[in-house]
Design a protein that fits this description.
Elements: E1 2-8, H1 21-38, E2 47-48, E3 53-54, H2 60-63, H3 66-80, E4 91-95, E5 105-107
Parallel strand pairs: 1-2, 1-3, 1-4
Antiparallel strand pairs: 4-5
Length: 110
């Protein structure tokens, strides 16, 4: 299972999407197909896409504290949205505006 988190910072317009839902779903469809083929049909990938999450702070509030703070806050918001039951994901992907020139992040839960 994959939790795909699309986030924006507090100062960004509430309508801003770092990546559209359709684009994210299309990318993950490709990922799922790759793993299905590579595993000879034995691995099925399921991705959940919560709504875009607005983080509590501006970008500068996360830069010095690293990606962990941002990831934890986004995951907690997904739990509140009912999209996650905690650390029940095999992989998490987070997409945001450029932070450390980041396009995406894959994190294995603890």
């Amino acid at each position: 299972r994959i939790l795909y988190l699309r986030v924006r910072f507090a100062y960004q317009d509430p309508a801003y999407e770092p990546v559209s839902l359709a684009t994210a779903q299309s990318h993950q469809d490709d990922v799922a197909e790759h793993y299905r083929i590579a595993s000879y049909g034995k691995l099925n990938v399921t991705t959940v896409f919560p709504d875009v999450i607005t983080l509590a702070e501006n970008k500068s509030g996360y830069v010095e504290q690293g990606l962990g703070k941002m990831m934890n806050e986004a995951r907690d918001a997904a739990i509140i949205l009912g999209e996650s039951k905690g650390l029940d994901w095999d992989i998490e992907i987070m997409i945001s505006t450029p932070l450390f020139r980041m396009v995406g992040l894959v994190v294995m839960p603890e």
